């Protein structure tokens, strides 16, 4: 079984190589934006890439050959709302919906710029040719090395392999449908010279115009499956209605079996503490909001992108403690940081408002993060979430602090907060990641109250 991993290779841009393990599927899938996935797929080396959706997971449970092919693939790409819902069962959020119909054109656009060619294999007679014509029209610089249908053209496997290799194609798109295309790739990809071989399902049909895509607003609502069902109800009813329910039920049972008791207890602790804090601190939250509005112009809440578990970005909430143009003035103040290393902190930061100094001193500015905890972005206890540019500058060792969910409080927060040097902070976070227990979390929560009252390192 593969567990959650993160590619810390500094040469891979924007977490392009990130993968996350989904207990509900017992699979590790790419966790990246579409552009990040394209970058990763076009890196040097040979790889097999498959798209995984709810239907694929259902097929896995009745087709052992297909299950083997999926588990032997180099790259698995999450496709569709079903997989996203399976991830959310364990509080995970995938960075993107990497369906083939969107990803393949983006992949080939970038491949064309790099001088890489593509071979289209599959579909009814004429489909691959029509898809090739559409791609050339959309991507004028694209080199289509060859095409072959998935019926008579697929009968002689040796001839197919010889034709693909003779074409010199760098990328091979196989459109034989699930599970035939994945099984074919698993059995024959090692005989191909191409760098990337991937199963693309109905992508060639979409490109050829055999099947129409849903409007953009339907796709954004993650409801393209409803559009497809309306087009072909007789053929797709079983897959999308009974199949989706079966998938979600199976994913739910698998999640309950695979999520550890400690994880369940930790999430229960997070929700209990955060929910209780919302109620108990309601007067403080309201008075703080009023004071911020009265003190300076701007919104009450400050929202910022931070990097969380496994390198996944999320929006963090804080009470605004600085002037509105604080971000624009940050670069000019970096040299005044009181902390050694990457993370910027300054006791005399001129951007901090009068109310901001008070709520920072009492750590009230951090209280809106209880919303992040309830949403599942953060935990009560864990390493503090860093800015994207700070993570980009991390040494490889520091990236290990992303192996656990980021938190409101933790070991370095109760030991001096901003007075702790960067390297020492990393040591503490890595120690926590290696040895965290429910009892340790409870101890750190208790020590947080003392740290807040002392005010040490709060600025």
Automatic annotation (TrEMBL):
Residue ranges of domain Bacterial sugar transferase in the record: 266-453
GO biological process per UniProt: polysaccharide biosynthetic process
GO molecular function terms noted in the UniProt entry: phosphotransferase activity, for other substituted phosphate groups
Keyword set, alphabetical order: Exopolysaccharide synthesis
CDD domains documented for this protein: Glyco_transf_WecG_TagA
One Pfam family cited in the UniProt record for this chain: Glyco_tran_WecG
Coiled coil segments of this chain: none
InterPro entries assigned: Bact_transf, WecG_TagA_CpsF
Similarity section: Belongs to the bacterial sugar transferase family.
Protein name: Polymer biosynthesis protein, WecB/TagA/CpsF family
Source organism per UniProt: Loktanella salsilacus
């Amino acid at each position: 079984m593969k567990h959650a991993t993160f590619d810390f290779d500094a040469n891979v841009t924007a977490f392009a190589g990130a993968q996350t393990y989904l207990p509900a599927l017992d699979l590790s899938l790419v966790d990246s934006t579409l552009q990040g996935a394209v970058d990763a797929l076009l890196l040097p080396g040979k790889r097999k890439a498959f798209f995984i959706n709810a239907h694929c997971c259902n097929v896995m449970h009745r087709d052992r050959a297909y299950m083997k092919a999926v588990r032997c693939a180099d790259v698995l790409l999450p496709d569709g709302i079903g997989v996203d819902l399976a991830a959310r069962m364990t509080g995970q959020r995938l960075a993107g919906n990497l369906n083939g119909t969107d990803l393949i054109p983006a992949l080939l656009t970038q491949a064309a710029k790099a001088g890489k060619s593509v071979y289209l294999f599959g579909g009814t007679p004429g489909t691959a040719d029509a898809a090739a014509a559409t791609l050339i029209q959309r991507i004028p610089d694209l080199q289509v090395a060859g095409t072959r249908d998935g019926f008579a053209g697929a009968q002689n496997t040796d001839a197919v392999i010889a034709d693909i290799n003779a074409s010199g194609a760098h990328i091979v798109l196989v459109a034989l449908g699930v599970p035939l295309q994945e099984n074919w790739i698993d059995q024959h990809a090692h005989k191909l010279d191409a760098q990337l071989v991937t199963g693309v399902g109905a992508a060639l049909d979409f490109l050829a115009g055999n099947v129409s895509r849903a409007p953009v607003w339907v796709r954004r609502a993650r409801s393209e499956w409803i559009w497809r069902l309306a087009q072909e109800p007789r053929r797709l009813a079983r897959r999308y209605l009974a199949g989706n329910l079966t998938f979600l039920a199976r994913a739910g049972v698998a999640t309950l079996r695979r999520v550890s008791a400690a994880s369940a207890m930790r999430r229960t602790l997070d929700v209990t503490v955060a929910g209780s804090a919302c109620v108990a601190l309601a007067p403080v939250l309201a008075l703080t909001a009023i004071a911020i509005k009265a003190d300076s112009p701007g919104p009450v809440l400050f929202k910022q992108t931070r990097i969380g578990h496994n390198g996944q970005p999320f929006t963090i909430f804080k009470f605004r403690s600085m002037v509105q143009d604080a971000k624009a003035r940050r670069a000019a103040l970096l040299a005044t940081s009181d902390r050694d290393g990457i993370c910027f902190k300054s006791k005399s930061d001129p951007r901090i408002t009068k109310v901001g100094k008070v709520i920072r001193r009492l750590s009230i500015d951090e209280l809106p993060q209880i919303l992040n905890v309830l949403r599942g972005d953060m935990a009560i206890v864990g390493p503090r979430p860093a800015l994207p540019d700070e993570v980009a500058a991390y040494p490889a060792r520091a990236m290990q602090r992303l192996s656990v969910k980021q938190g409101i409080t933790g070991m370095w927060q109760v030991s001096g907060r901003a007075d702790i040097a960067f390297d020492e902070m990393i040591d503490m976070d890595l120690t926590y990641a290696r040895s965290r227990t429910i009892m340790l979390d409870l101890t750190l929560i208790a020590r947080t109250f003392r740290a807040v009252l002392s005010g040490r390192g709060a600025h």
